[in-house]
Amino acid sequence: LSTATDNRASVLSGNPASSIQHPATAFAPVMGASGTAFTDSNDAIEYQWAVVDVNSLNVSNDDSGRINPAYPQELQPRDRTSAASEAQVNDIAKNFNLDRLSASSSVGDGAPIIGQDAVVESGNGRVMGARRAHLSKSPHLQVSSSSYRKTLIARAKEFGLNQEQIGAVPNPV
């Protein structure tokens, strides 16, 4: 994933980062190289590659699709409770693949954009799919998760990341 170098989620929501509730896992990103992605309106977003445990992120919806009340909903333009969203999340989990969740010049594709406060600013569906793959007891999804993890560790240097530090992250995204 990549972390936005500003704190847009907190600014847009009007909530300081300290007031946003986070999951039980501490947000401790392994930081890498920097880059630039673009919004649909061609605004440049500077980011830094990072790997975190998927359980440390403040995502728009929980695993059953219910809206997360701790998430600043003005950052979620899509209905993540819909059947179409559920199908997309399932597809991401089944095909959990680093090439689909890494380099892209668009914030709407590739690695999710995460604020410094652990709020998913772009890519809630991608994070939900990653979480589903990592936490599933399904043999197929466990293979998908294991393959993603191995590929991420093997390709860490492409993103300016440290293989050993990534290996210590239980459910990396």
Which key terms come to mind for this protein?
single chain; 173 residues; alpha+beta
Describe it:
With 173 residues, the chain is an alpha+beta fold. Helices cover 29% and strands 14% of the residues. It contains five helices and five strands. It has a five-stranded mixed β-sheet, with no helix packed on it. A hairpin with a 5-residue loop joins strand 4 and strand 5. Helix 2 packs across helix 3 and helix 3 packs across helix 4. About 10% of the residues have low confidence.
Mind telling me the C-alpha Rg?
15 Å
Distance between the termini: 6 Å
Number of strands: 5
Relative strand content: 5-15%
The mean pLDDT is 85
- Quaternary assembly: single chain
Order of helices and strands: EHEEHEEHHH
What summary fits the major beta sheet? 5 strands, mixed
Strand order, sheet with most strands: 2-3-1-4-5
Residues in helices, as a percent range:
25-40%
- Overall body shape: globular
Report the structural category. alpha+beta
Low-confidence stretches: 5-22
Q: Treating each run of at least 4 consecutive H or I residues as one helix, how many helices?
A: 5
Task: List the topology elements.
Elements: E1 2-4, H1 8-13, E2 30-38, E3 44-51, H2 83-94, E4 113-114, E5 120-122, H3 124-135, H4 139-154, H5 163-167
Parallel strand pairs: 1-4
Antiparallel strand pairs: 1-3, 2-3, 4-5
Helix pairs in contact: 2-3, 3-4
Brief summary:
The protein has 173 residues and is of the alpha+beta class. The chain has helices at 8-13, 83-94, 124-135, 139-154, 163-167, and strands at residues 2-4, 30-38, 44-51, 113-114, 120-122.
